[in-house]
Amino acid sequence: MPVPHPLEVMVDDAATAALFLDFDGSLAPIVDDPAAARVLPAARAALARLAPLLGTAAVVSGRPAEFLLDALGIEGVVYAGTYGLERVVDGVVVVDPRVAPWLDAIEQVADDAEAALPGLLVERKGRVAVTIHWRTQPERGPEASAWAEEAAARLGLEAPLRGRMAVELRPPVPVDKGTTVLDLVGDSTTAAFAGDDAGDLPAFDALRASVRTGGLRHAVTIGVASDEGPPEIRDADVVVDGPRGLAALLDALADEISARG
Predict the structure, then answer these.
(1) Distance spanning both ends of the chain, measured CA to CA
(2) What is the pTM of this model?
(3) Which domains does the chain have, with CATH numbers?
């Protein structure tokens, strides 16, 4: 496939470009059990080709950083997990120190959720966050959301709805994909973010705002479309059809950059 026009700026100056990618629903298909998620081989191969060609290549995900490292394991890729509360530095997971006062509350809310919501998947994201999933029982979404809202208020946590059929309980630390990509963008003049869900929209907004304020010269948003994603995803500069569409796009971008080089 040809490289879409908005991404030609990345081809023109790849060495100073930054590419940020979501994991679930973007590099990997959505599955009922998060532990069963696997990156598409074509997407991993394309990212492995792209990483040495770009100034920065990063995966920014709601997944724990250790999961991302194990799932991808591509040298030269930056891994930011739990929306940026965790990062892999020199092969070691480093947790944002602002999380420390909330570790006991996170452990407690995970235990409480398992007791209060039997049958739903309670995913412990290391020690820094907990996600309650109702994909296998969609009728229990209102129950899980209401419980999470009450528990968050009781323990001083946040409970944003940032994923598909899931709610996350996390420390009240001002970190999301938007703040994380701006922190990682460094001296890049061009940056792109690819994502499929509500939790990715802050990254879209942050990159667009950076262009308006003069931080970036170019920003490109890549929407990975699906039947479940929010409509705003389809307002991106480039829209692809699911993880396979993103894999093909990344491969085409690697081809074009290599050809120019």
Answers:
(1) 19
(2) 0.93
(3) 5-95+175-260 (3.40.50.1000), 98-169 (3.30.70.1020)
